[in-house]
Amino acid sequence: MCGIVGYVGRGDAVASVLEGLKRLEYRGYDSAGVCFKSEDNTLNLYKKQGKLANLKRALVGVDHFSHSSIGHTRWATHGEVNDLNAHPHLSDTLTTSEMISIVHNGIVENAKEIRDELKGQGFSFKSDTDSEVFLALVQREIRNLSESEKPVVAVCRAFKYIRGNSAFVVQGRNFPELIAVKRGAPLVCGNSDNRDDILVSSDPYALAGVVNTLFFPHDDTVTVLHSSNDVGSMDPVIEFFDLEGNATTGFDTKQQLIDVTTTDKGEFEHYMLKEIYEQPKLIRSLRDYYFSPEGQEMLKNSQEFKPERVHITACGTAYYAGLGIKTFIESIDNIPCQVDLASEFRYRNPLISNKDLGLFISQSGETADTLAAQELCKERGLLTAAIVNVEGSTLYRKSDNNLLIKAGIEIGVASTKAYTLQVLTGRLFSNAMAGKKLDKVLGERFLLLADRISDLLAKVDMIKEIAEEIYNYKGYFYTGRGKYYPSALEGALKLKEIAYVHAEGYAAGELKHGPIALIDEEIVNIAIIGPELYEKTLSNIEEIKARKGVIVGIGPEGDDSAKEICDYYVPLNFKGLEELSPLYVNVANQLLAYYMAKFKGTDIDKPRNLAKSVTVE
Ligand code: M6R
After folding, report:
1. Residue 425 domain-assigned?
2. Whether residues 451 and 484 fall in one domain
3. What is the C-alpha to C-alpha distance for residues 606 and 490, in angstroms, rounded to an integer?
4. Percentage of the chain surpassing pLDDT 90?
5. 109 and 217 co-located in one domain
6. Residue range 472-497: average pLDDT?
7. Are residues 168 and 241 in the same domain?
8. Which of 8, 10, 238, 435 is least buried, going by the fewest C-beta atoms within 10 A?
9. Which pLDDT band, with edges at 50, 70 and 90, does 261 fall under?
10. Residues 401 and 475 occupy one common structural domain
11. What is the rounded average pLDDT for all residues in the chain?
């Protein structure tokens, strides 16, 4: 969702903020802006709808050297996409003490109520955003400060009015520090080893290469970032307070793990493609990690779990990974398992008990709906566990137990490698919960999967050719049965999000109960033909074929009868992969979606309207 970057220090603040915003582009955004303080303390605002390049163009010829700046990439929630609604928001009061600018990530749920109240007190608003109410609230509280009170007190008081999950950073004309505050939205800060650069952001990636030790303030903690220009060499450059203004230890510390040098695209045209190709190596290293003493330690707790039921909650691709993991939990652990969309879970008053386990799956660990589901489970006394990529994320910090998927940073908005590693980590989890040691057979199956995916990647031209033939059709049905059904759902999601075409994942046997009415020569069926329920799957394909649908089969290698009924065929060697074979199929789907999007010419790494990490409900 929205990206925040703030800088105070001895260096070039705007350059640092722009670099941070560039790193956050992968999260998805529709406008960008910066506010910087010039030598006479004036706050200067530049913001533009569209890509960061538009903002950079607006800054050409402007003397923007500064030691204090805040910046933002906006993903619109309240108010349309335009320059005015872009962040930062700057007060236009003539009273310099109240001249402040703010950036915001999240949603102010009671924005209308606050706006009405403030209008009654003479405040006016320039934008349609919910964020601007916080700007006005802080202004009002600054106005009401006693002489001895510092601006941080005004921010604390203003924040107490805010309902919902939000993170803000405030910059003021009359105070040198940046003040940040958060509840339920990600925020991280830190300083360079020489204390020259002090940064705050919504994402540790923006701080990579500059900050080694990261601080993650807890909810309702206020962070004050002092410029190294303004404090003595022994004074802290970052301080934390509770909302009453008392110094607090309400933050976590963690070493920065992201290395900027490993995050460029290398030889690949897109991050998505790079991440698809990383999968064999990552599968091998995931196996090595969980076979190592450190990985065994991480799995140890899972061996103690004896829940009556497991409730998996997640969103999007992670939800589909959850459907795959459910089949492991039910077949290997013999424990009933339910998978819920996190955005629905808490609103249906789920029947959960403190004898159950809440399992949350998330790449980012910051998805607001998943976090809310986790909170509900905790409130109801369930033990919680997370299968998560980002160590130190909110989900990670709030879970009783974590299993890391070790995927490295995933930059493509369309999740690829994270899905594969989530499902594999779920496989290891179900093994541990069944009280089994990791055995050679399972380890070898992981390696076999890595090898088969490598072979498939080497034959990518075959998939590229099919993509070129089918990318311009009217609609797409991905079908699969049994354990391949989640791969059908995930395949359709991938195509929708990056190629902007309508695609649906369906259980193959279900098509005749309605959607078959849509089938004609303009519809493509991407049919997963697994070794199980094989004949029934072929009959389902015949039904589509009889209605002139175009068939792309993904099925067993050397199987002429399957190949014959398909217009196009991707042969796969399923032998020995057993329960891991849906992941192999899924890589074929990832490649197909990627090349179809490429032929369509869409913005593959940053698809329209999407954000990498959905931090609003
Ligand atoms: O970070 P998370 O795994 O919690 O994200 C969940 C979904 O938002 C995410 O998987 C989304 O569906 C992806 N864009 C799919 O490619």
Report:
1. yes
2. no
3. 18
4. 84
5. yes
6. 97
7. yes
8. 435
9. low
10. no
11. 94
Q: How far is the CA of 376 from the centre of ligand 1 (A)?
A: 20
612 is catalytic: yes
Query: Residue 388 pLDDT more than 90?
Result: yes
Q: What DSSP assignment string belongs to 513-552?
A: GTGGGG-STTEEEEEE--STTHHHHHHHHHHHHTTT-EEE
| Per-position DSSP letters for 319-344, written without gaps between them | HHHHHHHHHHIIIII---EEEEEHHH
pLDDT tens for 324-376 read: 999 999 999 999 999 999 999 999 989 999 999 999 999 999 999 999 999 99
Identify the H or E element spanning 241: strand 238-241
What residues make up the domain containing 331?
264-458
Nearest CA to 8 out of 274, 209, 271, 231 is that of 231
CA of 557 to the centre of ligand 1 (A): 32
DSSP string, 252-311: EEEE----GGGGS-TT-SSHHHHHHHTHHHHHHHHHHHHHSHHHHHHHHHHHH---S-EE
- Domains held by the chain: number: 3
User: Ligand 1 centroid vs 44 CA: distance in angstroms?
Assistant: 36
Q: Which residue has the tokens 């140890």?
A: 300
* Any domain includes 315: yes
Residue 74 reports pLDDT greater than 80: yes
Of the two residues 230 and 364, the one the predictor is more confident about is: 364
Ligand 1 atom with minimal separation from the 395 CA: 4
Binned at pLDDT 50, 70 and 90, residue 531 comes out as: confident
For residues 436, 441, 444, 449, the Cα torsion angle rounded to the nearest 10 degrees is -80
341-367: buried (b, 16+ CB within 10 Å) or exposed (e) per residue? bbbebbeeebebeeebbbbbbbbbbbb
**Residues 200-217: pLDDT tens digits?**
999 998 999 999 999 999
Q: Express as a percent the part of the chain with pLDDT over 70.
A: 99
Q: Are residues 123 and 243 in the same domain?
A: yes
436 with 515, same domain: the answer is: no
CA 539, CA 551: separation in Å to the nearest integer?
13
- Do the domain assignments include residue 607? no
User: What would the mean pLDDT of 45-51 be, rounded to a whole number?
Assistant: 96
Is there a domain that residue 242 lies in? yes
Among candidates 345, 364, 366, which has minimal Cα distance to 356? Answer: 345
Whether ligand 1 lies within 6 angstroms of the CB of 420 is answered as no
How far, in Å, are 270, 410, 487, 492, 603 from residue 497 at the CA level?
Answer: 15, 16, 15, 9, 10
Check pocket membership of 367 for ligand 1, CB cut-off 6 A: yes
Q: What pLDDT sits at residue 96?
A: 64
Residues 222 and 292 in one domain: no
Residue 597 pLDDT level (bands cut at 50, 70, 90): very high
**Which residue's CA is minimally distant from atom 11 of ligand 1?**
316
Sheet containing strand 166-172, edge to edge, reads 89-90, 100-106, 166-172, 175-183, 221-225, 238-241
